[in-house]
Structures are given as C-alpha cells and as structure tokens.
Amino acid sequence: MCNKDFMQKAVKLSRDHMEANDGGPFGAIVVKDGEVVAEGYNRVTSTNDPTAHAEVVAIRDACANLNTFSLKGCELYTSCEPCPMCLSAAYWSGVDVIYFSNTRKDAAEIGFSDDFLYEQVSLPLEERSLPIKRIELAEANKVFQDWMVKEDKVLY
Amino acid sequence: MCNKDFMQKAVKLSRDHMEANDGGPFGAIVVKDGEVVAEGYNRVTSTNDPTAHAEVVAIRDACANLNTFSLKGCELYTSCEPCPMCLSAAYWSGVDVIYFSNTRKDAAEIGFSDDFLYEQVSLPLEERSLPIKRIELAEANKVFQDWMVKEDKVLY
Q: Which of A20, A29, B1, B114 would give a disulfide with B104, using CB separation of 3.0 to 4.6 Å?
C-alpha cells in the first residue's frame, strides 16, 4: 500500500464514524512497517471525552496494541491537520512522520477551533482567552528536585 | 478550601505517584463548586500511554464522573504548567481557568520537553523537527462539506 492508500483509510474512518454520529468528521491510523497497527476516529460526543480526537485515539490504540509508550518507527495518517493537542501527542509518542489531508483552515471553515488554538498556544499566558494563573508552592518544586535524583525512574 | 489547598492536593498526587513509579512527577485535579470532582497523575510509562499526562487524565476522569464532554464551570489545578497537549485539552474541555505551580522552564530543567514543544507548535510546518506532510484528497474535503450540512450532528 502507498501513502495515498493509507490516507484513504483514515478518510474512510472519518466518513463512517461521522455518519454513525460518533463525533466530529475526523479519522486517523497508525502504520508500522507497512501495516496498519491502530485506528482512531473522533468520539468526543459519543464517549464524553474532549480528548478523544482521532489522532489521540489512534496513538493510544497503537501503544496498547504494540505494548509500548514509544511509537518510534511508526507513521501517523490523519484526515485533517492535527490540532495542537494531537500534534503534541504525536511528538510525545515519538512517531516518525505525520501525514494529513484537510488543513486547519479547512477545519476552521466548518466550525472547529484548531486554527484558533494554534494562535492561543503561541501567546504569552496573560494574553490568552483561557485564564491561566500561577500558584507557586515550594513543595511542587521539591517534587521536581526529587525526580532529578530518583534512581529507579523510567524516562520517556 | 482555598486555591492553595487545591494546589497542594495536585502536588501531593505528583509526589505520591512519582514515588509509586506510575510515571513523571505531575499531578492534577478538577474542581467544581468548591469540590474535587476528578484527579489525575502522570501514568505514561506504567500504562503505555503517551497521552496520559496528569491534566488529560484528570479531564477525562472529570467528564466521566460528571457525564458530560464540557467542563464549563470547572477549574483545573495542575502541579506544573500544562504542555501544549494538556493546554489544548483544557481549551477543548471548556474549563474556566487553569492554576499551575511549576513552570515549563522548571520542567525543562529536569529533562521534560514542554518548553521545546511550545516552540515546535508555533513553527510553520516545514520548520518543525517532526516531519508533517500533506496528502490532499478530495474525499477528505467532501467529508467536511457533508458535516456542514448534516442535520443531526452534535456540536462540541
């Protein structure tokens, strides 16, 4: 299968699950060594989970199926450019590459706030629409210092 | 309970679950009407889920407990400034406000890539370290057009 075939699979997921009323019109798959190892589709509204975007679902499914928290060596195909949540999830997962079809501007045109979110994430804290405030606690920083010297920690 | 008390709860989660080797040193809670409605802690390595950051776990838990995909009226307390994934999850969830203690710079100092991720998310696609490429398909855009006119869709 070529890249376009994999993308068609991701798009088919977006169509099928939009029609089934599972959530927004978004689908994704994870591919390793030319095989589909996971699928995802948006199921925010049907499962009451605002983090259940297609890419996050596919990444979680791939990690479960491959029994690992690292998707190094994998490719993520998504029917739409990932929002900052899903893009960051892709970074944390370690996938090698992301392929997408629709853009964040296309998503904005049908009412999704992906483009707005990219703007927000790039702003200084005090300029964002969602208030974010610091409550500085010495105990919090002490946990970080203890992590630094923890000998049996698992790095990720 | 005051803001500082809630933050102490989030920090205690970060300490307890770091010590239990569940994952990185991060904890979070969701508060509604002065009551804790959900807890989360990082469990990336113990559950093989790169999206299982404290804030994402707490948001998912709050939505499950409150039986909704909208956390309007809720506050998110997290022991560390959210990474772009968790910040975006907070936007998608609709929480009213985020409180944090450690900063993204503190996280960078103990080896986490939150600060780097903020830089990456803000870059044009072609300048990022994780390759991201477009495969344009007419079918993908057709799904978006069909979503636009879908009469029984659930907006989120």
A: B114
Q: Do A134 and B101 touch (CB under 8 A)?
A: yes
CA distance A137 to B102: 8
Question: Catalytic one among B19, B35, B39, B55?
Answer: B55
Please, what are the averages of pLDDT over each run of 10 residues along chain B (156 residues)? 95 97 97 98 97 98 98 98 98 98 96 93 97 98 97 92
Instruction: Chain A: give the shortest CA distance to residue B113, in Å.
Output: 9
| ipTM exceeding the 0.85 mark | yes
Q: Distance (Å, rounded) from C-alpha A154 to C-alpha B23?
A: 7
Residues A71, A95: contact at Cβ < 8 Å?
A: yes
Give percent above pLDDT 90 in chain A.
97
Interface test with A, best of B29, B51, B112 (most A CBs within 10 A): B51
Residues A19-45 have a mean pLDDT of 97
What is the rounded CA–CA span in Å between residue A80 and residue A83?
A: 9
**Distance (Å, whole) CA B30 – CA A33:** 40
- Residue type at A69? F
A14 neighbors A62 (Cβ within 8 angstroms): no
d(CA B27, CA B17): 8
Nearest to A69 among B44, B132, B156 (CB): B44
By Cβ distance, the residue of B100, B120, B137 closest to A7 is B137
Q: Summarize pLDDT for A57-87 with one digit per residue, the tens.
A: 999 999 999 999 999 999 999 999 999 999 9
